[in-house]
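Here is one chain, start to finish.
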Amino acid sequence: MSVTRRVSAAARRWWPQGCAVVLGLCAGLLYTALTDRVYTAQAYVVVVADAPSSIEQTTKFAQAFTKIATQPAIVGAALRPGLAARTVGELQRTVRVSASPDAPMISLAASAPDAAQAAGQANALAQALITYAGARATDTGVRIANLSQALAPEEPSGPDALINLTVGGAAGLLLGGLFYLVTPPARQGRDKGAARDEPAARSRERSRKRPVGA
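Its structure:
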């Protein structure tokens, strides 16, 4: 079989998979183009003890404050004019709070369509948490201090074009593979039919070539 025939046969066999992958990549590009840009800013606070204390104790308090940082009482105190989030629920959905496992430090990340708004939301939540901890310092023996304010990010955190292209291409490849799994029975049936007809065809060919009267 010539190279041209092999290429043609491969194209006829694999064109559904190729089309599915191309469509998936196009879908990923379209999603990236139509999705609004999202910016993420991070603020950092640290738990400090009023009296000499071990780092293990302040670290435990940092983890405790992390668990309650998105409670309505704290998030509601962070709401202010100029933020992208207008309600407690909106701000809760746009912030992520995490604590360091080996240090009394808390990270507060906030996302918004605008870089300055993302930084403002992170700083507002950090200040609300500082105020909340300060009001209870007499009972807990610890306070929260501002370690690093959030700055407006220069680049958006999403959407990620590479991830969207990868997901789209993988989805197209999966659909193409499913199509390939569905279609082999028909091809196999044709191949078996051709295999059954081949001996008869050879017999007819030999009959035609046999000399008259042989």
